[in-house]
Specification:
Order of helices and strands: HHHEHHHHHHEHEHEEEHHHHHH
Radius of gyration: 24 Å
Strand content: under 5%
Largest sheet: 2 strands, antiparallel
Oligomer: single chain
Number of strands: 6
Length: 524
Protein backbone atom coordinates (compact mmCIF):
# COMPACT_ATOMS: atom_id res chain seq x y z
CA UNK A 1 0.00 0.00 0.00
CA UNK A 2 2.68 2.50 0.95
CA UNK A 3 4.91 1.43 -1.92
CA UNK A 4 2.15 2.29 -4.37
CA UNK A 5 1.70 5.74 -2.84
CA UNK A 6 5.43 6.49 -3.10
CA UNK A 7 5.47 5.23 -6.67
CA UNK A 8 2.49 7.43 -7.51
CA UNK A 9 4.34 10.57 -6.36
CA UNK A 10 7.35 9.62 -8.46
CA UNK A 11 5.15 9.14 -11.52
CA UNK A 12 3.30 12.42 -11.01
CA UNK A 13 6.54 14.34 -10.50
CA UNK A 14 8.00 12.89 -13.68
CA UNK A 15 4.93 13.86 -15.67
CA UNK A 16 5.00 17.34 -14.22
CA UNK A 17 8.62 17.86 -15.28
CA UNK A 18 7.89 16.61 -18.77
CA UNK A 19 4.94 18.96 -19.18
CA UNK A 20 7.15 22.01 -18.47
CA UNK A 21 9.31 21.14 -21.47
CA UNK A 22 6.65 19.81 -23.84
CA UNK A 23 3.50 21.87 -23.52
CA UNK A 24 1.91 20.10 -26.47
CA UNK A 25 1.80 16.95 -24.34
CA UNK A 26 -0.65 18.58 -21.94
CA UNK A 27 -4.02 16.87 -22.11
CA UNK A 28 -7.48 18.08 -21.24
CA UNK A 29 -9.44 15.20 -19.77
CA UNK A 30 -13.20 15.41 -20.20
CA UNK A 31 -13.72 12.66 -17.65
CA UNK A 32 -11.77 11.18 -14.76
CA UNK A 33 -12.52 7.93 -12.99
CA UNK A 34 -11.34 8.77 -9.50
CA UNK A 35 -13.12 8.37 -6.15
CA UNK A 36 -13.67 12.13 -5.90
CA UNK A 37 -15.71 11.96 -9.12
CA UNK A 38 -17.28 8.51 -9.28
CA UNK A 39 -18.36 8.27 -5.63
CA UNK A 40 -20.71 11.24 -5.95
CA UNK A 41 -23.98 9.50 -6.73
CA UNK A 42 -25.82 6.27 -6.05
CA UNK A 43 -24.67 4.62 -9.29
CA UNK A 44 -21.01 5.22 -8.53
CA UNK A 45 -21.35 4.14 -4.93
CA UNK A 46 -23.27 1.01 -5.88
CA UNK A 47 -20.56 0.05 -8.37
CA UNK A 48 -17.97 0.70 -5.66
CA UNK A 49 -19.79 -1.65 -3.26
CA UNK A 50 -19.72 -4.35 -5.95
CA UNK A 51 -15.99 -3.74 -6.35
CA UNK A 52 -15.53 -3.89 -2.58
CA UNK A 53 -17.30 -7.23 -2.48
CA UNK A 54 -14.92 -8.51 -5.14
CA UNK A 55 -11.95 -7.35 -3.06
CA UNK A 56 -13.35 -9.20 -0.06
CA UNK A 57 -13.87 -12.33 -2.16
CA UNK A 58 -10.16 -12.30 -3.03
CA UNK A 59 -9.44 -13.29 0.57
CA UNK A 60 -10.12 -16.88 -0.44
CA UNK A 61 -9.87 -16.80 -4.24
CA UNK A 62 -6.57 -16.32 -5.99
CA UNK A 63 -4.95 -17.60 -9.18
CA UNK A 64 -1.26 -18.28 -8.76
CA UNK A 65 -0.83 -19.30 -5.13
CA UNK A 66 -2.25 -22.80 -4.97
CA UNK A 67 -1.31 -23.54 -1.36
CA UNK A 68 -2.11 -20.15 0.17
CA UNK A 69 -5.43 -21.30 1.61
CA UNK A 70 -3.56 -24.02 3.51
CA UNK A 71 -2.11 -21.54 5.99
CA UNK A 72 -5.44 -21.32 7.81
CA UNK A 73 -5.66 -25.10 8.26
CA UNK A 74 -2.26 -26.87 8.30
CA UNK A 75 -0.32 -26.61 11.51
CA UNK A 76 -3.61 -26.47 13.45
CA UNK A 77 -5.46 -29.42 14.96
CA UNK A 78 -7.52 -30.33 11.88
CA UNK A 79 -5.07 -30.54 8.96
CA UNK A 80 -1.52 -31.45 8.02
CA UNK A 81 0.55 -30.83 4.91
CA UNK A 82 -0.26 -32.73 1.75
CA UNK A 83 0.90 -31.96 -1.76
CA UNK A 84 1.88 -28.41 -0.84
CA UNK A 85 3.89 -26.12 -3.06
CA UNK A 86 5.47 -23.64 -0.69
CA UNK A 87 3.17 -21.06 0.87
CA UNK A 88 1.98 -23.40 3.58
CA UNK A 89 5.41 -24.69 4.62
CA UNK A 90 6.14 -22.29 7.53
CA UNK A 91 2.72 -23.02 9.00
CA UNK A 92 3.44 -26.67 9.67
CA UNK A 93 7.15 -26.12 10.31
CA UNK A 94 6.88 -23.07 12.53
CA UNK A 95 10.61 -22.63 13.02
CA UNK A 96 10.74 -21.30 9.44
CA UNK A 97 7.95 -18.74 9.94
CA UNK A 98 9.52 -15.27 9.84
CA UNK A 99 8.90 -11.68 8.78
CA UNK A 100 9.67 -12.50 5.14
CA UNK A 101 6.70 -14.87 4.95
CA UNK A 102 4.85 -14.30 1.63
CA UNK A 103 1.51 -15.55 2.96
CA UNK A 104 1.52 -13.05 5.83
CA UNK A 105 2.37 -10.30 3.34
CA UNK A 106 -0.46 -11.33 1.00
CA UNK A 107 -3.09 -11.27 3.73
CA UNK A 108 -1.84 -8.10 5.37
CA UNK A 109 -2.02 -6.40 1.98
CA UNK A 110 -5.42 -7.92 1.22
CA UNK A 111 -6.92 -6.63 4.46
CA UNK A 112 -5.64 -3.09 3.99
CA UNK A 113 -6.81 -3.09 0.37
CA UNK A 114 -10.33 -3.87 1.61
CA UNK A 115 -10.03 -1.18 4.27
CA UNK A 116 -8.78 1.37 1.72
CA UNK A 117 -11.68 0.65 -0.64
CA UNK A 118 -14.19 0.82 2.22
CA UNK A 119 -12.75 4.14 3.41
CA UNK A 120 -13.22 5.65 -0.05
CA UNK A 121 -16.87 4.60 -0.11
CA UNK A 122 -17.47 5.88 3.41
CA UNK A 123 -15.98 9.24 2.51
CA UNK A 124 -18.06 9.52 -0.65
CA UNK A 125 -21.29 8.47 1.03
CA UNK A 126 -20.65 10.79 3.99
CA UNK A 127 -20.25 13.87 1.78
CA UNK A 128 -23.37 16.02 2.18
CA UNK A 129 -23.03 17.19 -1.42
CA UNK A 130 -23.60 13.63 -2.66
CA UNK A 131 -27.30 13.50 -3.70
CA UNK A 132 -28.58 10.62 -1.58
CA UNK A 133 -31.60 10.04 0.57
CA UNK A 134 -30.95 9.42 4.25
CA UNK A 135 -31.87 5.77 3.78
CA UNK A 136 -29.60 5.42 0.75
CA UNK A 137 -26.67 7.14 2.45
CA UNK A 138 -26.92 4.95 5.52
CA UNK A 139 -27.20 1.84 3.35
CA UNK A 140 -23.92 2.54 1.56
CA UNK A 141 -22.21 3.46 4.83
CA UNK A 142 -23.47 0.31 6.55
CA UNK A 143 -22.23 -1.99 3.80
CA UNK A 144 -18.79 -0.38 3.67
CA UNK A 145 -18.46 -0.35 7.44
CA UNK A 146 -19.36 -4.03 7.65
CA UNK A 147 -16.55 -4.98 5.28
CA UNK A 148 -14.10 -2.59 6.96
CA UNK A 149 -14.89 -4.20 10.32
CA UNK A 150 -14.55 -7.65 8.77
CA UNK A 151 -11.05 -6.83 7.51
CA UNK A 152 -9.98 -5.23 10.79
CA UNK A 153 -11.25 -8.19 12.81
CA UNK A 154 -9.16 -10.45 10.58
CA UNK A 155 -6.08 -8.31 11.22
CA UNK A 156 -6.55 -7.95 14.97
CA UNK A 157 -7.23 -11.66 15.43
CA UNK A 158 -4.12 -12.80 13.54
CA UNK A 159 -1.67 -9.93 14.21
CA UNK A 160 -2.95 -8.20 17.35
CA UNK A 161 -2.17 -4.48 17.37
CA UNK A 162 -2.05 -3.02 13.83
CA UNK A 163 -2.16 0.47 12.27
CA UNK A 164 -5.60 2.08 12.28
CA UNK A 165 -6.46 3.71 8.95
CA UNK A 166 -9.88 5.31 9.20
CA UNK A 167 -9.70 7.77 6.29
CA UNK A 168 -8.56 7.54 2.66
CA UNK A 169 -4.84 8.13 2.25
CA UNK A 170 -4.22 10.61 -0.56
CA UNK A 171 -0.44 11.00 -0.31
CA UNK A 172 2.56 8.87 0.55
CA UNK A 173 2.58 7.93 4.23
CA UNK A 174 5.62 6.43 5.92
CA UNK A 175 4.87 6.96 9.61
CA UNK A 176 2.36 4.26 10.52
CA UNK A 177 2.22 3.10 14.14
CA UNK A 178 0.31 0.25 15.72
CA UNK A 179 -2.90 1.24 17.47
CA UNK A 180 -3.80 -0.37 20.81
CA UNK A 181 -6.05 -3.42 20.49
CA UNK A 182 -8.72 -1.74 22.65
CA UNK A 183 -8.83 1.19 20.22
CA UNK A 184 -9.13 -1.17 17.28
CA UNK A 185 -11.85 -3.18 19.02
CA UNK A 186 -13.90 -0.05 19.68
CA UNK A 187 -13.51 0.95 16.05
CA UNK A 188 -14.70 -2.49 14.87
CA UNK A 189 -17.58 -2.49 17.33
CA UNK A 190 -18.78 0.96 16.24
CA UNK A 191 -18.70 -0.04 12.57
CA UNK A 192 -20.70 -3.20 13.24
CA UNK A 193 -23.24 -1.49 15.49
CA UNK A 194 -23.83 1.02 12.69
CA UNK A 195 -24.11 -1.81 10.15
CA UNK A 196 -26.50 -3.67 12.44
CA UNK A 197 -28.69 -0.59 12.61
CA UNK A 198 -28.92 0.29 8.92
CA UNK A 199 -28.43 -2.91 6.93
CA UNK A 200 -31.64 -4.61 5.69
CA UNK A 201 -32.78 -7.97 6.95
CA UNK A 202 -31.89 -10.83 4.67
CA UNK A 203 -35.31 -10.95 3.00
CA UNK A 204 -35.13 -7.25 2.17
CA UNK A 205 -31.68 -7.39 0.52
CA UNK A 206 -32.28 -6.15 -3.02
CA UNK A 207 -29.32 -7.62 -4.90
CA UNK A 208 -28.08 -11.24 -4.69
CA UNK A 209 -25.01 -11.63 -2.54
CA UNK A 210 -25.32 -8.27 -0.77
CA UNK A 211 -24.82 -8.18 2.97
CA UNK A 212 -27.63 -8.29 5.56
CA UNK A 213 -28.16 -7.15 9.13
CA UNK A 214 -27.95 -10.75 10.31
CA UNK A 215 -24.41 -11.05 8.95
CA UNK A 216 -23.42 -7.93 10.91
CA UNK A 217 -25.01 -9.34 14.06
CA UNK A 218 -23.18 -12.65 13.70
CA UNK A 219 -19.83 -10.97 13.07
CA UNK A 220 -20.35 -8.67 16.04
CA UNK A 221 -21.16 -11.70 18.18
CA UNK A 222 -17.87 -13.31 17.15
CA UNK A 223 -15.98 -10.06 17.80
CA UNK A 224 -17.49 -9.76 21.27
CA UNK A 225 -16.37 -13.31 22.04
CA UNK A 226 -12.82 -12.44 21.00
CA UNK A 227 -13.00 -9.39 23.25
CA UNK A 228 -14.14 -11.45 26.24
CA UNK A 229 -17.70 -10.09 26.26
CA UNK A 230 -19.88 -13.23 26.08
CA UNK A 231 -22.95 -11.44 27.45
CA UNK A 232 -22.94 -8.99 24.54
CA UNK A 233 -22.14 -11.79 22.10
CA UNK A 234 -25.15 -13.78 23.28
CA UNK A 235 -27.47 -10.83 22.58
CA UNK A 236 -26.26 -10.51 18.99
CA UNK A 237 -26.36 -14.24 18.23
CA UNK A 238 -29.85 -14.65 19.64
CA UNK A 239 -30.99 -11.86 17.33
CA UNK A 240 -29.95 -13.99 14.36
CA UNK A 241 -31.49 -17.18 15.70
CA UNK A 242 -34.73 -15.53 16.84
CA UNK A 243 -35.18 -13.51 13.65
CA UNK A 244 -37.22 -16.32 12.14
CA UNK A 245 -35.34 -15.88 8.87
CA UNK A 246 -33.25 -19.05 9.06
CA UNK A 247 -33.68 -22.71 9.93
CA UNK A 248 -31.41 -25.72 10.38
CA UNK A 249 -31.48 -27.99 7.33
CA UNK A 250 -33.13 -31.24 8.40
CA UNK A 251 -34.67 -32.45 5.13
CA UNK A 252 -33.30 -33.24 1.69
CA UNK A 253 -33.53 -30.44 -0.88
CA UNK A 254 -32.08 -29.10 -4.09
CA UNK A 255 -30.55 -30.35 -7.31
CA UNK A 256 -29.65 -33.85 -6.05
CA UNK A 257 -32.46 -34.43 -3.57
CA UNK A 258 -33.58 -37.55 -5.43
CA UNK A 259 -30.09 -39.09 -5.35
CA UNK A 260 -28.40 -40.79 -2.38
CA UNK A 261 -27.27 -38.24 0.21
CA UNK A 262 -28.41 -36.49 3.37
CA UNK A 263 -29.59 -33.01 4.47
CA UNK A 264 -26.19 -31.90 5.75
CA UNK A 265 -24.28 -32.69 2.56
CA UNK A 266 -27.03 -31.10 0.43
CA UNK A 267 -25.96 -27.63 1.63
CA UNK A 268 -22.58 -27.90 -0.08
CA UNK A 269 -23.67 -29.13 -3.50
CA UNK A 270 -23.11 -26.74 -6.39
CA UNK A 271 -26.54 -25.24 -7.08
CA UNK A 272 -27.76 -25.64 -3.47
CA UNK A 273 -25.64 -23.17 -1.53
CA UNK A 274 -27.57 -19.92 -1.87
CA UNK A 275 -30.63 -18.92 0.10
CA UNK A 276 -32.73 -18.64 -3.04
CA UNK A 277 -31.60 -22.15 -3.99
CA UNK A 278 -33.11 -23.55 -0.81
CA UNK A 279 -30.30 -23.20 1.74
CA UNK A 280 -32.15 -21.72 4.70
CA UNK A 281 -29.02 -21.79 6.86
CA UNK A 282 -27.18 -19.38 4.57
CA UNK A 283 -26.50 -15.99 6.17
CA UNK A 284 -23.66 -14.73 3.96
CA UNK A 285 -22.68 -16.44 0.72
CA UNK A 286 -20.02 -15.07 -1.62
CA UNK A 287 -21.51 -16.01 -4.95
CA UNK A 288 -19.50 -17.20 -7.94
CA UNK A 289 -20.85 -18.20 -11.33
CA UNK A 290 -19.51 -20.37 -14.13
CA UNK A 291 -19.16 -18.83 -17.58
CA UNK A 292 -20.30 -15.38 -16.47
CA UNK A 293 -18.01 -12.32 -16.73
CA UNK A 294 -17.00 -11.33 -13.22
CA UNK A 295 -18.37 -14.62 -11.90
CA UNK A 296 -15.12 -15.23 -10.03
CA UNK A 297 -12.48 -12.86 -8.72
CA UNK A 298 -9.78 -15.24 -9.82
CA UNK A 299 -9.23 -18.98 -9.75
CA UNK A 300 -10.63 -20.24 -6.47
CA UNK A 301 -8.18 -22.85 -5.20
CA UNK A 302 -10.43 -24.56 -2.64
CA UNK A 303 -10.83 -27.70 -4.73
CA UNK A 304 -7.10 -27.99 -5.33
CA UNK A 305 -6.45 -27.59 -1.61
CA UNK A 306 -9.15 -29.86 -0.14
CA UNK A 307 -9.84 -32.49 -2.83
CA UNK A 308 -7.16 -35.19 -3.23
CA UNK A 309 -5.40 -35.96 -6.48
CA UNK A 310 -6.95 -39.40 -6.95
CA UNK A 311 -7.01 -39.09 -10.74
CA UNK A 312 -3.23 -39.51 -10.74
CA UNK A 313 -3.75 -43.15 -9.81
CA UNK A 314 -4.12 -45.47 -12.79
CA UNK A 315 -7.71 -46.68 -13.03
CA UNK A 316 -9.35 -43.56 -11.59
CA UNK A 317 -10.94 -40.97 -13.87
CA UNK A 318 -11.76 -37.38 -12.95
CA UNK A 319 -15.47 -37.27 -12.13
CA UNK A 320 -18.15 -35.46 -10.16
CA UNK A 321 -18.41 -38.05 -7.38
CA UNK A 322 -14.67 -37.72 -6.66
CA UNK A 323 -14.83 -33.95 -6.49
CA UNK A 324 -13.25 -33.05 -9.81
CA UNK A 325 -9.57 -32.38 -10.35
CA UNK A 326 -8.06 -31.80 -6.92
CA UNK A 327 -4.41 -31.70 -5.94
CA UNK A 328 -4.55 -32.53 -2.24
CA UNK A 329 -2.52 -29.55 -1.05
CA UNK A 330 -3.47 -30.54 2.51
CA UNK A 331 -4.70 -33.61 4.36
CA UNK A 332 -7.08 -34.01 7.28
CA UNK A 333 -5.19 -34.74 10.48
CA UNK A 334 -5.13 -38.27 11.94
CA UNK A 335 -7.03 -36.93 14.95
CA UNK A 336 -9.88 -35.63 12.82
CA UNK A 337 -10.05 -38.79 10.70
CA UNK A 338 -9.81 -41.31 13.53
CA UNK A 339 -10.73 -39.58 16.76
CA UNK A 340 -13.31 -36.87 16.16
CA UNK A 341 -16.52 -38.55 15.03
CA UNK A 342 -18.44 -41.18 16.98
CA UNK A 343 -21.51 -43.23 16.20
CA UNK A 344 -23.52 -42.54 13.07
CA UNK A 345 -22.83 -38.82 12.91
CA UNK A 346 -24.24 -37.60 9.58
CA UNK A 347 -21.30 -35.23 9.20
CA UNK A 348 -19.10 -38.31 8.91
CA UNK A 349 -21.24 -39.97 6.25
CA UNK A 350 -19.68 -40.88 2.87
CA UNK A 351 -21.55 -37.92 1.39
CA UNK A 352 -19.65 -35.46 3.59
CA UNK A 353 -16.36 -37.17 4.43
CA UNK A 354 -15.18 -39.59 1.76
CA UNK A 355 -12.89 -42.28 3.11
CA UNK A 356 -13.11 -45.00 0.44
CA UNK A 357 -12.24 -44.83 -3.25
CA UNK A 358 -13.11 -47.25 -6.06
CA UNK A 359 -11.62 -47.71 -9.49
CA UNK A 360 -14.00 -46.07 -11.97
CA UNK A 361 -12.24 -46.52 -15.32
CA UNK A 362 -14.20 -49.22 -17.23
CA UNK A 363 -11.08 -50.14 -19.21
CA UNK A 364 -9.15 -50.99 -16.05
CA UNK A 365 -9.19 -54.63 -14.86
CA UNK A 366 -9.84 -53.41 -11.30
CA UNK A 367 -12.97 -51.48 -12.33
CA UNK A 368 -15.42 -51.34 -9.40
CA UNK A 369 -12.95 -52.61 -6.85
CA UNK A 370 -11.96 -50.66 -3.74
CA UNK A 371 -8.60 -48.90 -3.96
CA UNK A 372 -6.01 -50.21 -1.51
CA UNK A 373 -3.50 -47.36 -1.49
CA UNK A 374 0.24 -47.68 -1.09
CA UNK A 375 1.86 -45.52 1.62
CA UNK A 376 3.04 -43.07 -1.05
CA UNK A 377 -0.52 -42.67 -2.37
CA UNK A 378 -1.78 -41.66 1.08
CA UNK A 379 0.20 -38.43 0.95
CA UNK A 380 -2.24 -36.67 -1.37
CA UNK A 381 -3.85 -39.11 -3.84
CA UNK A 382 -5.99 -41.45 -1.75
CA UNK A 383 -6.79 -39.73 1.52
CA UNK A 384 -10.03 -39.10 3.43
CA UNK A 385 -11.38 -35.65 2.63
CA UNK A 386 -14.35 -33.35 3.14
CA UNK A 387 -16.59 -33.22 0.08
CA UNK A 388 -17.64 -29.61 0.73
CA UNK A 389 -15.36 -28.42 -2.07
CA UNK A 390 -16.32 -31.02 -4.66
CA UNK A 391 -16.77 -29.22 -7.98
CA UNK A 392 -16.91 -30.64 -11.48
CA UNK A 393 -18.14 -29.40 -14.85
CA UNK A 394 -18.02 -31.96 -17.67
CA UNK A 395 -16.96 -29.29 -20.16
CA UNK A 396 -13.92 -28.52 -17.98
CA UNK A 397 -12.63 -31.97 -17.03
CA UNK A 398 -9.14 -30.72 -16.16
CA UNK A 399 -10.47 -28.14 -13.73
CA UNK A 400 -9.08 -24.96 -15.27
CA UNK A 401 -11.74 -22.92 -13.45
CA UNK A 402 -13.62 -23.13 -10.17
CA UNK A 403 -16.80 -21.16 -9.57
CA UNK A 404 -18.30 -22.72 -6.48
CA UNK A 405 -19.96 -20.37 -3.99
CA UNK A 406 -18.26 -19.64 -0.67
CA UNK A 407 -20.55 -20.03 2.35
CA UNK A 408 -19.06 -17.44 4.69
CA UNK A 409 -21.70 -17.63 7.45
CA UNK A 410 -24.52 -20.05 8.17
CA UNK A 411 -26.86 -20.78 11.03
CA UNK A 412 -24.95 -23.88 12.11
CA UNK A 413 -22.05 -21.68 13.21
CA UNK A 414 -24.43 -19.24 14.91
CA UNK A 415 -25.46 -22.00 17.32
CA UNK A 416 -21.82 -22.90 17.97
CA UNK A 417 -20.89 -19.29 18.72
CA UNK A 418 -23.94 -19.04 20.99
CA UNK A 419 -22.87 -22.20 22.82
CA UNK A 420 -19.44 -20.67 23.33
CA UNK A 421 -20.97 -17.51 24.81
CA UNK A 422 -23.26 -19.57 27.06
CA UNK A 423 -20.35 -21.72 28.24
CA UNK A 424 -18.35 -18.62 29.17
CA UNK A 425 -21.37 -17.28 31.06
CA UNK A 426 -21.63 -20.53 33.02
CA UNK A 427 -24.89 -21.49 31.27
CA UNK A 428 -23.80 -25.06 30.59
CA UNK A 429 -27.28 -26.49 30.17
CA UNK A 430 -28.19 -23.85 27.62
CA UNK A 431 -24.89 -24.44 25.80
CA UNK A 432 -25.73 -28.13 25.57
CA UNK A 433 -29.16 -27.27 24.17
CA UNK A 434 -27.57 -25.07 21.50
CA UNK A 435 -25.11 -27.77 20.47
CA UNK A 436 -27.84 -30.40 20.46
CA UNK A 437 -29.64 -28.48 17.72
CA UNK A 438 -26.77 -29.50 15.44
CA UNK A 439 -26.21 -32.94 16.91
CA UNK A 440 -29.90 -33.74 16.51
CA UNK A 441 -29.73 -32.84 12.82
CA UNK A 442 -26.58 -34.96 12.51
CA UNK A 443 -28.33 -37.89 14.29
CA UNK A 444 -25.45 -37.92 16.78
CA UNK A 445 -25.90 -38.70 20.46
CA UNK A 446 -27.12 -35.69 22.45
CA UNK A 447 -25.00 -34.08 25.14
CA UNK A 448 -25.70 -32.72 28.60
CA UNK A 449 -24.33 -29.85 30.65
CA UNK A 450 -21.60 -32.09 32.08
CA UNK A 451 -20.19 -32.63 28.58
CA UNK A 452 -19.68 -28.96 27.81
CA UNK A 453 -16.12 -27.65 27.86
CA UNK A 454 -14.27 -25.29 25.56
CA UNK A 455 -12.51 -28.29 24.04
CA UNK A 456 -15.82 -29.98 23.31
CA UNK A 457 -17.14 -26.84 21.61
CA UNK A 458 -14.01 -26.65 19.46
CA UNK A 459 -14.35 -30.34 18.63
CA UNK A 460 -17.95 -29.74 17.60
CA UNK A 461 -16.89 -26.81 15.44
CA UNK A 462 -14.51 -29.16 13.63
CA UNK A 463 -17.25 -31.74 13.13
CA UNK A 464 -19.66 -29.14 11.78
CA UNK A 465 -17.40 -26.64 10.02
CA UNK A 466 -14.39 -28.51 8.66
CA UNK A 467 -13.57 -27.01 5.27
CA UNK A 468 -15.67 -23.90 6.03
CA UNK A 469 -14.19 -22.08 8.99
CA UNK A 470 -10.83 -20.37 9.10
CA UNK A 471 -9.54 -22.79 11.74
CA UNK A 472 -6.44 -20.78 12.57
CA UNK A 473 -8.55 -17.73 13.35
CA UNK A 474 -10.87 -19.76 15.56
CA UNK A 475 -8.03 -21.23 17.60
CA UNK A 476 -6.19 -17.91 17.90
CA UNK A 477 -9.42 -16.14 18.88
CA UNK A 478 -10.12 -18.69 21.61
CA UNK A 479 -6.50 -18.79 22.83
CA UNK A 480 -6.21 -22.52 22.13
CA UNK A 481 -3.91 -22.79 19.09
CA UNK A 482 -0.74 -23.76 20.98
CA UNK A 483 -2.34 -26.33 23.28
CA UNK A 484 -4.46 -28.04 20.63
CA UNK A 485 -1.64 -28.28 18.10
CA UNK A 486 0.68 -29.83 20.68
CA UNK A 487 -1.97 -32.27 21.88
CA UNK A 488 -3.77 -33.22 18.67
CA UNK A 489 -1.48 -32.61 15.70
CA UNK A 490 1.09 -35.35 16.21
CA UNK A 491 2.57 -34.74 12.77
CA UNK A 492 3.35 -31.04 13.17
CA UNK A 493 3.38 -30.29 16.89
CA UNK A 494 7.11 -30.14 17.61
CA UNK A 495 8.08 -26.72 16.29
CA UNK A 496 5.23 -24.43 17.33
CA UNK A 497 6.16 -21.84 19.97
CA UNK A 498 3.91 -19.52 22.04
CA UNK A 499 4.80 -16.51 19.91
CA UNK A 500 3.52 -18.29 16.77
CA UNK A 501 0.00 -17.53 17.94
CA UNK A 502 0.35 -14.19 16.15
CA UNK A 503 1.66 -13.76 12.62
CA UNK A 504 4.75 -11.70 11.76
CA UNK A 505 4.27 -8.18 10.45
CA UNK A 506 5.65 -8.18 6.89
CA UNK A 507 9.23 -6.91 6.87
CA UNK A 508 8.60 -4.87 3.73
CA UNK A 509 6.00 -2.84 5.64
CA UNK A 510 8.46 -2.19 8.46
CA UNK A 511 11.23 -1.20 6.04
CA UNK A 512 9.04 1.22 4.05
CA UNK A 513 7.76 2.90 7.21
CA UNK A 514 10.85 5.08 7.51
CA UNK A 515 9.40 7.95 9.59
CA UNK A 516 8.07 5.92 12.51
CA UNK A 517 8.70 2.59 14.19
CA UNK A 518 6.30 -0.14 13.12
CA UNK A 519 7.19 -2.68 15.79
CA UNK A 520 7.40 -6.39 15.01
CA UNK A 521 5.48 -9.06 16.90
CA UNK A 522 7.57 -10.80 19.56
CA UNK A 523 9.68 -13.71 18.34
CA UNK A 524 10.05 -12.74 14.69
Amino acid sequence: MKKLNILLIVILTSLGLASCKKSFLNEKSDSAYTPTVTLKDSLGLDAAIAGLQESVREQYTMQSTQSLLCIFQVGTDVCIDGNGNGEEYPYHNYVTLNSQDPAALYYWTWAYRVITNANQIIKGASDSSTPLSTVGRNSFLAQAKFFRAYAYNFLVTLWGSVPLVSQPITAAKTDFVRAPVDTLNNFINNDLVFAGTYLPNIDAVKLPGRISVEAAQQLLGEVYLREGKPDLAQVQLLKVINSGKFSITTARYGVKASLPGDPFSDMFIYGNQRRREGNKEAIWVEEQQYNVPGGSSSFDQHRRVWVPSSYQLSGILICDSLGGRGLGRLRLSPWLINGLYTGNDMRNSPYSLRRNFYYNDPTNPKFGQKVIPTPADTLFRIVPYTTKWNFFIPSDINGTGDYKDLIMMRLGETYLLLAEAQFKLGQLGQAATSINVLRSRAQASLVTASDITMDFILDERARELIGEENRRMTLVRTGTLLERVKRLNIKENTTIQPYNTLLPIPQTEINLNKDAVLTQNTGY
